[in-house]
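Handout, page 2. Input:
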Amino acid sequence: MAENQPLPVAIIGASGYGGIQLVRLLLEHPCVKIVYVGGSGSVGQNFADLYPHIAHRLNLTIENLEPEQVAERAKVVFLSLPNGLAAQWAPRLLAKGCKVLDLSADYRFRDLSIYESWYKSPPRPDREINAKAVYGLPELYGAQIANADLVACPGCYPTASLLALLPLLKQGLIDPSGIVIDAKSGTSGGGRKGEINLLLAEAGNSVSAYGIANHRHTPEIEQICSEVAGQPVVVQFTPHLIPMVRGILATVYAKMRDPGLVSDDLLTIYKVFYRHAPWVKVMPKGVYPQTKWAVGTNLCYLGLQVDQRTGRVVVVSVIDNLMKGQASQAVQCLNIMMGWDETLGLPQLTFYP
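Output:
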């Protein structure tokens, strides 16, 4: 790639909700050019036929999934595919010299046996490649992302939950055995497919829990928590479906080890911990974030309160599930991989109201 020329990128799985977020973000990115969009069910269609609102900015035909063709044209590939497919693609793309950012769960686990168990996957042959993957949470693994060829972008619930917990676990401030995460997500988290529970008539005017005690994001959260804490961490994680399009609010409860610490103490710790994290905003005392604040941005808002009566800390974490929970965090990782400012090309303000 010649100096000052835009970086050619490909998006595989561009027709889903995660894919269209990537298209929008990368069209606005000053250092990137989209050269390939790939899919399966819509091959041969112009991408603008699926999403007419971007016809004035993108004129590309959706092509077959051919790694060799992709590698000839793109230096970086975003894989926005269902779980299980990225593991078939990534090795071939890496062998051709591409950098890969995977938005699925395929490379998030250090121990592939955990992935195979929770995702009901047959044994994977790509263990050597999996060992080289870097977990794409920039606020924790930024230095490793900068040198990575394969980034495993985190899940949306883990992103919101982990950003709430990292300072507490890093400083050993909480009992790692009693963490409870109560999280709520908009319906776009279910993807762009015809699921009955995501229909307006089903999801509207209702709130429902799902994946109780067995949601696939649970071991992902526990893996990173355990690494940060330096000991095994088990969490109680329960997700809920909320009748809104996008956004996640995770409320995290944990038992304090030092009953003398108050909210002001923890707010100071959080602000210091995230002092170099431009996408994490710690709210003043008594201010708790709303999902509307983060919609359309790469921001995570955190608010917290110590309940001295119960000896627990309560942390509220808010993100856009399709952005910081998926596509914009992947672009944040791209910026770090390429040595660019990690805020480059990413929206910092929501539309309000």
